Amino acid sequence: MYTLLRSILFCFPPEAVHHLSMNMLRFACRIGFIRKMMARHFQAKGVQPYQLWNLTFPNRVGLAAGFDKNAAYLRELETLGFGSVEIGTVTPLPQPGNDQPRVFRLPKDKGLINRMGFNNEGVKAAAERLRAYRGHGSKLIIGGNIGKNKVTPNEEAWKDYEICFRELADCVDYFVVNVSSPNTPGLRALQEKESLRQILTHLQVINNERQQPLPLLLKIAPDLGNAELDDVADLALEIKLDGLVVSNTTISREGLTTDAEKVKAMGAGGLSGAPVRQRSTEVLKYIISKTQSRIPVIASGGIFTAADAKEKIDAGACLVQVWTGFIYEGPAIAKKIATSI
After folding, report:
1. Torsion region of 133: left, alpha or beta (phi above 0 gives left; psi -120 to 50 gives alpha)
2. For residue 331, how many other CB atoms are within 10 A of its CB?
3. Whole-prediction pTM value?
4. Nearest-CA neighbor of 248 among 64, 81, 67?
5. What is the mean pLDDT of the chain?
6. Which of 5, 67, 249, 287 has the most neighbouring CB atoms within 10 Å?
7. Which residue among 84, 180, 181, 272 is the active-site one?
8. Is residue 244 within 8 Å of residue 297, measured between CB atoms?
9. What is the Cα 47 distance to its own chain's centre?
10. What b/e sequence results for 186-206 when a residue is b if at least 16 CB atoms lie within 10 Å of its CB, and e otherwise?
11. Cα(306)–Cα(114) distance, integer angstroms
């Protein structure tokens, strides 16, 4: 059924289809009995909750950042059976992101290229929606993925991360620092050890002032070399980071079956989906080995099936996140994976 629907949806621009489909889902979920029917159909039954960071995840399958940038569809995504949703990436000030078109499908490769550029309504808008949603007693675990505004120079990036942290601290369950998106100029330079140290230690100081500190994680790129991964692992252990998300999108275009000229015409951006699965698993295994499993890892990258998720968990991941797989596999993806891992 979804295969047919996908073939129709793929006839239209990706970003427009995303907003249309999610708004239709929102409309359906406003009708109580329809929402209950959908929840019965899509939510996994008989799955043991998963405990991590003193949080109870309803299941181990989450939705990665970038899908619900503005915390606009939390009820709908919970209805579809996700155990966690990472909102964002949010920035202190609203920003439109890069010019459209900025999302491109690669159906032959089960991939996407995007250069969204942290388009979002700003952290205050996200926080307002989150506080309203929290009032409904949801069990959904919500992560806050935070970044810097495009206009903020790298030497002042720590200020942007602080603003986002303080604004969201009372309405998310954990934080993810995003310095690994390829779509904000210069952002990936913040993955260098000393730049990371400045941002993360500052957030740790603020976090430790709280009565109940929140888990603080770092999301890394799959394009880092071993020396850079060593730096990340060493720093994470040194400052007692709570976790890592492995991994973000890749700037590599190696191994694609889509016509090279078509890929070139799509331009710059991060590649996600099946093409990044192998590399993200390699990085995951390297990090797990380097840290001797002392830092929990959320695995993201090329997860479409329960077998893909099991590969990540067998490699040492605690939780998994989907994004491109959700688009290609459809709304039952969380249930299919959660009931099989």
Report:
1. alpha
2. 19
3. 0.97
4. 64
5. 97
6. 249
7. 181
8. yes
9. 22
10. ebbebbeeebbebbbeebbee
11. 25
